[in-house]
Amino acid sequence: MFNLDARLQSWILRHDKPQSGVITLNRRRVYIVPTQPGFLFGMVLLAMLLASINYQLSLGYLFTFLVGAVGVVGMHRTHDVLLGLEVSCVQTLPGHAGANVNFVLRIRNPHRHLRAGLMFFVDKTLLAQDVFIEPLGQKDVPIQVAVQRRGIAACPRIQIQTVFPFGLWRAWSYVWPRTNVLVYPALSAQIAPRSGRGKGIGASRTGSGQDSFSHVSPYNEGDDVKRLHWQSFAREQLALRQHEGEAGDEDLYRLDALETHLPLEERLSRLASAITLADQRGARFALALNEAEAAQPQFASGNAHRHALLARLALVGMPQQTQSMMHHTP
Hints:
Shape: elongated
Radius of gyration: 29 Å
Strand order of the largest sheet: 2-11-10-6-7
Number of helices: 8
Oligomer: single chain
């Protein structure tokens, strides 16, 4: 049974390739077979038919064909749950190696009947279930995929299946969006040391918790908007609040400052951890992968800046052809 199922899957997927844009589940893409309860249902139906023939039971014939009609209607209804669905990958959410990345699938129902009981699998692992899509509606379904290596991860082949409404038939189809997601270096328990603190080296913090307001500084793209100076904003100027002890909180992290005997992946992991912690502190930070960048560090803060630096770490050592794959990411 399982060998037959593996052969069937291999035959179905023999010409399957990643696709861009919207993937429509047409009749050539939707497959259907009986479930184990469905096989049992068929055997009971056959036994009822043989008994009706043997004993010439008119009511037996009626009941057998009535129950059989329910099974046939269920087959068409199960098939129709998937038929015509439009699937696309609308967003990717990067993650760290050793954790998960997310591919967000948008499932659109262009017809006027409910799509119910959808399940989503990757390599036979159930990732989402009991997904319902209203008539003429749509729903975004996040697909979490475990990743182990830094760099770029391609979206895997995803199986969508249902046994709705009676559980007698299993209909399924495959979608394989042509999209990629960044995988940041794994986070390390060891943190890369700060190679410098910008113009405020040696500045110390006073007390614990919130320091008193000191001055404002110019706003740079990527800075944390939570630190905006609203009085300046009212005058149509963008500036950041600075507190006492905070003027020197500019952390520079350099790849070449780490011990050279450490493997590259460990050094990148320590830098990723340091950048993540600096962002949590609300500090302004920069990354230097070489001497030229260390001479003119680009300090900023905020979530967008953190993601930009982690993306640079994710692509360290990757060939240009591999990096260009990210152009296909939504």
